[in-house]
């Protein structure tokens, strides 16, 4: 029960931050897709950095044990195409639809309905897709540090430096 309460509280906090960052707004979503407004990208990259640092510090202190999902190219391509198509058609990504609906944007309800229908269709076609598409390019539990043979902190710091450089470039361009 404690985990459910903790999940509810962190979900409320995340929704609050989404709303305060104005990333649940349709114009921000479309601006990101058109490379005109990088508010969404800045928010996502900031969240990735905080999560990346937090989870790896937890690992260092033995508070978590990381378990990596296998890298499967077919799954990533199919999932990315479905995600991108839905985001491009509706103008909301799955994470911002709930926030948009909470702000009274009823158009987000169509996306939520579409996700539910899509999940049902995916479940029904999963055996077919698994045989023909989803299993392509199975590499097992492979991480970038393992792939290039370096310490994970080197990759984390390089990623953070790249994001900072990207943010600087966005600011120079007024994005």
Summary?
By secondary structure, this protein is mostly helical. It has helices at 2-20, 26-33, 39-60, 73-90, 94-102, 108-134, 144-148, 152-173; strands at 71-72, 138-140. Strands 1-2 form a two-stranded antiparallel ribbon.
Topology:
Blueprint: H1 2-20, H2 26-33, H3 39-60, E1 71-72, H4 73-90, H5 94-102, H6 108-134, E2 138-140, H7 144-148, H8 152-173
Antiparallel strand pairs: 1-2
Helix pairs in contact: 1-5, 3-8, 4-6, 5-6
| Overall mean pLDDT | 89
**What's the SSE pattern?**
HHHEHHHEHH
Order of strands, widest sheet = 1-2
Number of structurally distinct domains: 1
Rounded radius of gyration (Å): 18 Å
Q: Strand pairing plus helix content: what structural class?
A: mainly alpha
Query: Which geometry do the CA atoms define?
Result: globular
- How would you classify the quaternary structure? single chain
Find the count of extended strands (DSSP E, 2+ residues). Answer: 2
Please tally the helical runs, counting DSSP H or I stretches of 4 or more residues. Answer: 8
Give the CA-CA distance, first to last residue: 43 Å
